[in-house]
């Protein structure tokens, strides 16, 4: 916008003091801050320099706006169509005056930007279940949307883990068996530890036994690519390279754990930033949803209805949280004491329930392992009960305790968001610790020998290939968890919907239509993903099984949600849910890393199966491979793994962390100043509107105004007169946008 020099400067070129500018609330606030900082600066001096400061600020903002405008495509500029055409013509004229090299650079940059935008749009359109997730968002809000987005993320994560395992562990064996390659097998012949007692059956096998093997992972499945014991390969000799399979097996295990950690942390950081922005100022959240939440690109009537219901759900959630916060703030001291006492008693009860569940899992696991060793298989049903006894007990505990916790939480009087988080944390502790108790029960039997000390380092009489046994337990937990989810959906949720819909009795009305319980559903997939992380080392195809499981689970949950469930009576926001779901997933990953690390570094590897038969532990393959490298590479690797490097890296990381914390604090201060500036600009506009109304009233009464030449009544009422006055006044409004004080600017 061009600034009229006659309006803003005198004949000497200086910017005089403007009384209207001095009366603005933003200028008064700036004047007060400068007085307090400088110890009493005179108003006259500040007023004389205010015009120059405002002009320099305006010119800087105008230059920055011009640069940003030149970089944007014309269709993204906030201009009328006529101005866009005029601006396009101006750009073309400037482009003709430029040299051919500059034009080539600008055209290349524009073409690359267009390709990037089109690529991002294409990738967004190719997202898995995009339309289904938009449908769920409109019908049930962003809270339940976050669950399905979380489920999609786990599908992609497990698929990537499967690709890693398949590419570096299974594919070399498959290629070597069909090509002119030599496979080296190493096994300690003649040793008692090298005897492998497989559970696979010989001869004629009944049909129900195949079903039992399919459900338990034993029998014909035990000697397949599915389990650890099948990979009895030391090296694969291709024509020009020797492929070290044990090293690849170990490095892929480390790689998928690191990949999962980086991916989860990256998504958590995005959700954490959104959570901070939305929790910082609730009024800003309301304004964004009411005034800027609508998508004007929607043309479909059904899509507009879904978007409206989604916004309605979010506003209802925010209002419910505000009501709860006000209720908590109005509590008396007596009510607080009563609530704290109730919470203390209920938490003691929860601890007792958890202890009973963990003891039941330990007893069931010990009994199941002993029964499988001493029991002669013959009865199909009894075989399955013995096989699945730990899984049955864990599933019952995981099914009963969330219902119990959801009932208990109603008496503790928390906010809706905290209720979900606290219930989720209790269920997380129950589900994930149950896996830990199961593994502890298994390893207490694996490492316990009747004769001391253990000849093989583990109980080879009961577990000739203990890694495969652990993989079978993880496989059974995964399969049984999926069977339970499908069974509950078919035999509980659908009949409940029919009973509530077609039965008018009081019990059916009290039972009511089912709500989509997000804590239980999130815990189901976090629990399954933790099992997948643990079992991928012992059952390399388990990530593929989990990918298929979560793929079908999405459609099962979608159909059940649309047909059986109603919108939640206490909805919640998706931003904090996304961050909290990933935080719970990080807890599950930390728990998964512990048993994998212990088994790799501490427990002796099986000498009858697997790729690590020549090593005491699985970790020994790494230093053994490093010792065969050239001396310079060995020195570098030892230096990177030394304590001096670890301490230096820790110190540098701490310094970087402190720098990031300081930078975050500076950014927060700038954000607060910008918010204050926005508030001041709103007050300035209100003040200037009042002055404009007063000026219009004066013009309507008096024939002349001081500072303007006399006009006739017809000229005063002409549109050109009012247009010139309004333009001058609008320019003064633009010059009054006061930036934050330079003394506090970061």
Give the tags.
746 residues, mainly alpha, three-stranded antiparallel β-sheet, two-stranded parallel ribbon, 5 strands, 72% helix, globular
Explain this structure to me?
This protein is mainly α and 746 residues long. It has a domain at 130-209 and 221-275 and 295-641. The chain is 72% helix and 2% strand. It has 25 helices and five strands. The protein has helices at residues 5-8, 19-22, 25-38, 43-71, 81-97, 100-125, 130-140, 142-177, 207-216, 245-280, 282-291, 301-329, 333-374, 380-409, 416-446, 466-502, 506-511, 518-535, 542-564, 574-601, 621-626, 631-640, 643-701, 713-717, 719-734; strands at 182-184, 235-237, 242-244, 514-515, 565-566. The strands form two sheets. It has a three-stranded antiparallel sheet. A hairpin with a 4-residue loop joins strand 2 (235-237) and strand 3. Helix 7 packs across helix 12 (301-329) and helix 10 runs antiparallel to helix 20. The longest helix has 59 residues, at 643-701. It is globular and about 115 Å long.
Q: Hey, roughly how much beta strand do the residues contain?
A: under 5%
Q: How many beta-strand segments?
A: 5
Main beta sheet strand tally, sense and closure: 3 strands, antiparallel
Q: Oligomeric state of the chains?
A: single chain
Intertermini distance: 29 Å
Spans of at least 5 consecutive residues whose pLDDT stays below 50 are 1-16, 39-58, 705-746
Report the mean per-residue pLDDT as an integer.
75
Order of helices and strands: HHHHHHHHEHEEHHHHHHHHEHHEHHHHHH
Q: What radius of gyration results from the CA coordinates?
A: 35 Å
Shape: globular
Q: Helix/strand-derived class?
A: mainly alpha
Please give the count of helices: 25
Strand order of the largest sheet: 1-2-3
Percent of residues in helices comes to over 70%
């Amino acid at each position: 916008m061009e600034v009229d020099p006659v309006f803003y400067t005198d004949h000497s070129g200086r910017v005089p003091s403007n009384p209207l500018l001095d009366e603005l609330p933003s200028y008064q606030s700036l004047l007060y801050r400068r007085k307090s900082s400088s110890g009493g600066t005179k108003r006259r001096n500040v007023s004389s320099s205010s015009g120059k400061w405002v002009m320099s600020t305006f010119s800087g903002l105008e230059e920055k706006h011009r640069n940003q405008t030149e970089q944007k495509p014309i269709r993204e500029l906030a201009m009328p169509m006529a101005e866009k055409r005029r601006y396009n013509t101006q750009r073309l004229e400037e482009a003709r005056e430029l040299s051919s090299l500059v034009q080539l650079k600008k055209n290349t940059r524009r073409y690359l930007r267009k390709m990037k935008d089109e690529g991002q749009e294409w990738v967004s359109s190719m997202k898995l279940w995009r339309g289904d997730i938009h449908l769920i968002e409109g019908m049930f809000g962003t809270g339940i949307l976050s669950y399905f987005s979380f489920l999609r993320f786990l599908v992609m994560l497990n698929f990537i883990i499967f690709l890693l395992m398949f590419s570096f562990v299974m594919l070399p064996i498959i290629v070597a068996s069909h090509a002119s390659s030599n496979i080296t097998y190493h096994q300690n012949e003649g040793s008692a530890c090298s005897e492998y007692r497989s559970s696979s059956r010989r001869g004629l096998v009944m049909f129900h036994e195949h079903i039992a093997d399919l459900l338990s992972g034993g029998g014909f499945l035990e000697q397949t690519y599915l389990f650890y014991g099948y990979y009895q390969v030391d090296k694969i000799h291709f024509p020009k390279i020797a492929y070290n399979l044990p090293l690849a097996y170990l490095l892929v295990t480390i790689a998928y754990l690191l990949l999962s950690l980086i991916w989860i942390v990256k998504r958590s950081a995005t959700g954490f930033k959104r959570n901070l922005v939305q929790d910082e100022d609730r009024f800003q959240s309301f304004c964004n949803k009411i005034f800027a939440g609508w998508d004007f690109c929607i043309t479909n009537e059904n899509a507009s209805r879904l978007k409206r219901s989604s916004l309605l759900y979010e506003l209802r959630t925010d209002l419910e949280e505000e009501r709860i916060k006000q209720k908590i703030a109005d509590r008396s001291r007596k009510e607080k004491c009563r609530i704290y006492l109730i919470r203390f008693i209920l938490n003691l009860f929860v601890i007792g329930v958890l202890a009973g569940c963990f003891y039941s899992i330990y007893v069931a696991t010990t009994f199941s392992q002993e029964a499988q060793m001493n029991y002669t298989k013959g009865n199909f049903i009894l075989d399955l009960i013995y096989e699945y006894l730990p899984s049955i007990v864990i599933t019952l505990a995981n099914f009963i305790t969330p219902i119990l916790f959801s009932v208990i939480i109603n008496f503790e009087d928390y906010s809706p968001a905290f209720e979900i988080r606290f219930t989720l944390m209790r269920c997380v502790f129950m589900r994930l610790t149950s896996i830990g108790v199961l593994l502890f029960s298994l390893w207490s039997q694996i490492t316990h020998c009747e004769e001391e000390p253990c000849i093989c380092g583990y109980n080879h009489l009961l577990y000739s290939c203990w890694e495969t046994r652990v993989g079978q337990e993880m496989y059974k937990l995964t399969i049984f968890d999926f069977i339970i989810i499908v069974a509950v959906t078919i035999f509980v949720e659908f009949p409940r919907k029919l009973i509530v819909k077609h039965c008018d009795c009081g019990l059916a009305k009290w039972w009511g239509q089912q709500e989509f319980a997000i804590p239980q559903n999130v815990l189901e997939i976090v629990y399954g993903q933790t099992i997948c992380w643990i079992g991928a080392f012992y059952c390399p195809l388990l990530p593929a099984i989990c990918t298929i499981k979560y793929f079908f689970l999405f459609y099962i949950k979608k159909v059940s949600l649309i047909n059986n469930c109603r919108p939640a009576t206490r909805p919640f926001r998706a931003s904090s849910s996304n961050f909290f779901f990933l935080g719970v997933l990080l807890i599950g990953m930390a728990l998964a890393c512990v048993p994998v690390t212990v088994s790799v570094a501490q427990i002796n590897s099986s000498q009858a199966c697997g790729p690590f038969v020549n090593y005491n532990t699985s970790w020994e393959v790494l230093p053994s491979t490093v010792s065969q490298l050239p001396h310079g590479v060995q020195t570098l690797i030892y230096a990177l793994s030394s304590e001096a490097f670890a301490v230096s890296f820790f110190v540098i990381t701490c310094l970087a962390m402190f720098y990031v914390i300081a930078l975050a604090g500076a950014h927060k201060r700038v954000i607060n100043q910008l918010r204050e500036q926005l508030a001041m600009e709103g007050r300035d506009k209100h003040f200037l509107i009042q002055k404009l109304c007063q000026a219009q009233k004066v013009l309507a009464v008096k024939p002349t105004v001081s500072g303007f030449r006399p006009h006739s009544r017809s000229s005063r009422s002409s549109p050109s007169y009012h247009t010139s006055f309004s333009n001058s006044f609008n320019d003064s409004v633009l010059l009054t946008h006061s930036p934050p004080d330079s003394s506090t600017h970061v």
